[in-house]
Amino acid sequence: MRHGQLARELDTKRLALNPGDQTKLDLTFEISQLGWVHNKMKSYELAIEEYRQVIQIRTQLVREDPKYAYTRQRLAYARIMAGEILIPLGRWSEAGSEYRGALEISTSLLQANSSDPELPG
Fold it and tell me: Which residues does 112 contact at the CB level (< 8 Å), separation at least 6?
């Protein structure tokens, strides 16, 4: 856990120096790892807070570059994880919303890949 927090701090400092998309995406991986650890420790409220941050940042990245499939895939994954975490909290409606959002992203990626061979998968 300590290493994950340190990595998050380092990526936050990197973001201040270089606010590019890759740095933002890197930061989301650190936050996501902390969320995963909190989920495994059954600290669901902390885990969902972290995944909400991940979803917020990745949503912004997708809005800035909607054709970049990798970021969209990573956003879908974060939404699946958020749904998984919301279930033990009894927040069924929110979990369903996250799962539907992930399904919508995944479906759009499949449709784009079938119609646009140039889109990176």
Answer: 69, 119
